[in-house]
Amino acid sequence: MAKLLKFPKGFYWGASTSSHQVEGGNKNDWSIWEKENAGRLANGARVYWQLWRRKSEFLPQAMDPANYISGKATDHYGRFREDFDIAKALGHNAHRLSIEWSRVEPSEGKFDDEEIEHYRTVISELKARGIEPFVTLFHFTLPIWVRSKGGWASRQTARDFAKYAERVVSELSPGVKYWITLNEPTLYSLVSNLGFGPWMEWPYVGGGYRGWFRMSSNLVAGHKGAHHAIKALNKSHQVGIAQSIVYFDAFGINPLSRLVVRSARRFYNHRFLKKIRKYQDFVGINYFTHNRIRVGLENPRRWFNHNENKEVSDLGWELYPEGIYKAVKEVSIYRKPIYITENGIADTRDLKRAKFIKDNLEWLHRAISDGADVRGYFHWSLLDNFEWGDGFWPKFGLVEIDYKNGLKRKVRQSAKEYAKIIKTNAVDAS
Ligand code: BGC
Q: 4-428: which CATH architecture?
């Protein structure tokens, strides 16, 4: 017997992208770092750990320096209409994108009217297709002038960010109600300060633990400043962040493991959200996987990731759909509407994505049935894209990009399965 799990009326269904990962032609701190580091990344320990050991089919691409340079990316900057046509045909009624700060304000205090006009067109093309925009103001990339003043390691960036936010919001305001100030501020500040090494390759600031806390506090100030500017323009705007929520759990019975789990949850998942508690209208969750912790006598780095890994993505991340349920439960303490702002899988052959989506949505539905106020789901990502320090080889798209053939778009089968869910506003769990 069919068992239809119905989602709430008016639920937002869509996908996410970010400017630097899809637009192409950006000139920002990342594009500089990519060029300086491509050779090292191609030969690097990361390739060994992620791919060589697994004898992966992606090795040849990962060993090519060109993999690490965003370049034209998917040329979404030039082809956004075509991409939105696809999203509409798939039934999406919402879409998350980000504004590229380095385009809008290429030098300090000088805003580029043409670029603002570009984004105004992007928004109106979404609206014309009946797609509600969710707009992110910072998704990991900074204008070069901001980086040269210290980036988020400097308090000044919080002030500069608020000014940029005010300008963007006042220009794009009539068409946009939902604003996401920052993408994954905790992960960003953690990786920027502590994540150097084969595990996380990222433009390096390297401030250690103190640097992490300082940057995090600057990001809090940036969020608050932007929140203030947005609300001053229009009180009814909805403002939040997209927070990376990892479901941490303990492996084994060592009580110390449980203690570390609690600290990981407190610091990684909640610290930032608690600091901005009074300055957010909703909570955005980016959920990808869980992390089982086992404390032992070895280097603390080895306490993490004791996952079973029965089923993994191309990046080796365990597929753990019940984690989305637990993530939603965890952030329900804030008593705010929740949006899943990212959830996705690197799956080049598209063998696991459809099931991944269905499984995650079944668990999400369970959280809603338990009373969680979840109002939307954005799959990561609409398009294959530039996956930061991993470059182009991991494929997260509902839509495949044929990089060898004029960046042709091809809708994957899983995108069609997702479209069926959207059409019925329900998951068939029979
Ligand atoms: C980021 C995306 C990224 C995705 C997959 C999230 O942490 O917001 O930019 O592509 O994870 O790694």
A: Alpha-Beta Barrel (3.20)
β-strand partners of 399: 383, 411
pLDDT digits (tens, 9 = 90+) for 230-255: 999 999 999 999 999 999 999 988 99
Predicted confidence band of residue 301 (pLDDT cuts 50, 70, 90): confident
> Which residues in 169-323 belong to E strands, given as ranges?
178-183, 238-244, 247-250, 283-286, 290-293
The alpha carbon of 228 and the centre of ligand 1 are apart by a number of angstroms equal to 27
In angstroms, the CA 340 to CA 333 distance is 16
Instruction: Say how far residue 176 (Cα) sits from the centre of its chain.
Output: 19
Distances (CA, A) of 116 to 63, 102, 129: 37, 11, 20
Residue whose CA lies nearest to ligand 1 atom number 12: 387
The reply to whether ligand 1 has any atom less than 6 angstroms from the CB of 341 is no
**Chain centroid, CA 204 distance in Å:** 19
CB-ligand 1 contact for 362 (6 Å cutoff)? no
Regarding the beta carbon of 286 and ligand 1, being less than 6 Å apart is answered yes
User: Distance between alpha carbon 427 and the CA centroid of its chain, in Å?
Assistant: 24
Spell out the domain ranges in the chain: 4-428
- CB-based contact 267:273 (threshold 8 Å): no
Amino acid at 334: Y
Nearest Cα neighbor of 359 from 406, 399, 311 is: 311
Spatial distance between the Cα atoms of 43 and 312, rounded to a whole number of angstroms: 24
The residue assigned the tokens 């530039």 is 386
Residue type, 250: A
CA dihedral for 190, 193, 197, 201, sign (positive or negative)? positive
- pLDDT of 176-221, one tens digit each? 999 999 999 999 999 999 875 666 788 878 899 999 999 999 999 9
